[in-house]
Amino acid sequence: MLFPKPDIFKTTIIVLLMTATSRLAFGAAGDGSPGDTNIKYFGRWDRSNASAFHGYWGGAYLKTIFTGTTIKVNLGNTLKYHVKIDDKPWVTFVAVNGTNNLAPTPLAQGTHTLIIAQGQDYSYDFAFKGISLDPGATTSTPSVRADLIEWIGDSITDGYTDTRSDVSDYAWICAESLNSEHTQIAFPGIALVDGYGVNNNKTGMGTQYFKLQDLNYGASVNWDFSNYTAKIVVVNIGTNDGNTPNDLYQSTYIAFLGNIRTKFPAAHIVVLVPNGGAHRAQDSAAYQARVAAGDKNVHYINTTGWLKGVEMNDGAHPSDSGHVKLAGLLKPLLYGYLTPAAPVITPDKGNNRRIASSAVVPANNLQMEILRLDGSVVEHRTKWRTGISSLPTGIYLVRTFNENGTVRNNRVSLLQHKGSGNGVFPVCCPDDVAAP
User: Fold this and answer.
1) Which of 62, 70, 126, 185 qualifies as a FRET site for 430, CA 20 to 30 Å off?
2) What's the confidence (pLDDT) of residue 115?
């Protein structure tokens, strides 16, 4: 994947302030300094310097609750960032440093929630020196969601070319829609395998993922994985491995998945084939190797060709609408791995459904119900084969029933209809084998 490398490295910081409307856990009053225990950090942060905590990789963020009518952020380097206050439109601050007033028009009296998130553009060092509050104002502990999703990838997972970089890309949107915290360990142009990719530093993600910092920092120190535990790890890599030999790519991917498993023994690991599908066969083989090794929490999703036309900005990077679409398609596939697995669809029959990690292939004597992704029923069929070709091309949820009409296995499959013949294919099965 080729793209112009900017002449001047920039960092995007995104700031989100929302009025607190839900029940929150309040701790001791804090002062807004980097070490304030009411500030919660997500992603890879270096906290060794008490005067400035450094966030690395794209999409690192922090959040807290504060009182008062104004709020300022204190920066230790020149940054570009976006600000959102109480669900108002985003405001962008470009190339600023020092102390920045995030609310030049005073906020309403009360309690507000602050999130600051680092974004895109190669140089991912956010030097956070704290926040400045009104006289007498304090911070308090924000709510922290039960699960965290770690996204591993390249410029696609960093939101390269979209409007607001990391916070408007599929990884951020999907995790937020699943009510999960999240990290984006990604870097533009990076390959999986050492020696490949489009950057001058050709260290691959198979090596750099285990470091505190990204490719800009060379021999970065190892990351301490005890800092957080991911519930799901989604790996979307390989787009920049176009010149990597297939056998080397496959063996590296197998080793990479094994090393991730060592760091997160209980996590659900998802092998995501990129939209371009360059190493689809090797991605599938790496997944199958983990299954053969007895890994019961590894999954496979083939997204080849999901995004087309205006959903791509330049043929390689999703547009804003493409990121939204990709996030929406991944959401029902991932939610069942979270705790608790709250339903995201509400079909007419049954309760507590979960998306299957592979498609249910019913026998011909079973009934099935075809639903849109929002859970609305398209129709109920008494036979699997009957009239399949009459469906419009698209992706559907399919739920099966026993002959007496009772729900079978309480599970839903995500299937893609190609618009001809029996043309219904499991989205998440390794070989995309057509259902009978």
Assistant:
1) 185
2) 86
Between CA 389 and CA 301 the distance in angstroms is 24
Partners of residue 419 on adjacent β-strands? none
DSSP for 295-350, please give it: -SSEEEEE-TT---GGGBSSSSSB-HHHHHHHHHHHHHHHGGGSSS---S---SS-
CATH number of 12-140: 2.60.120.260
- Ranges in the chain annotated CATH 2.60.120.260: 12-140
The fold adopted by the segment(s) 148-337 is: Rossmann fold (3.40.50)
SS3 98: strand
C-alpha radius of gyration, the chain, whole number: 23
**156, 236 in Cβ contact below 8 A?**
yes
> What's the pTM value of the predicted model, to 2 decimals?
0.76
pLDDT, residue 420, reads: 46
Output the CA torsion 48→52→53→57 (10° steps): -120
Bridge partners (DSSP) of residue 369 are 380, 399
Is the four-CA dihedral 204, 128, 317, 18 of positive or negative sign?
A: positive
Residues of the chain with CATH 3.40.50.1110: 148-337
| Strand 232-236 relative to strand 268-273, pairing | parallel
- C-alpha span between 308 and 276 (Å, rounded): 10
Question: What Å distances lie between residue 86 and 98, 105, 117, CA to CA?
Answer: 24, 12, 16
- d(C-alpha 92, C-alpha 84), whole Å: 9
Spatial CB neighbours of 236, under 8 Å, sequence gap ≥ 6: 151, 152, 153, 154, 156, 157, 272, 274
Say whether 230 sits in a helix, a strand or coil.
coil
pLDDT averages per 10-residue partition of the chain, 436 residues: 42 40 50 96 96 92 92 89 74 84 91 82 85 95 95 94 87 93 95 96 96 87 97 98 97 98 97 93 96 94 91 92 92 83 35 31 52 59 48 62 49 52 37 26
Say how far apart CA 52 and CA 69 lie, in whole Å: 25
- Written as six digits, the tokens of 187 are 């870097």
Cα–Cα distance measured from residue 223 to residue 243, given in angstroms and rounded to the nearest whole number: 29
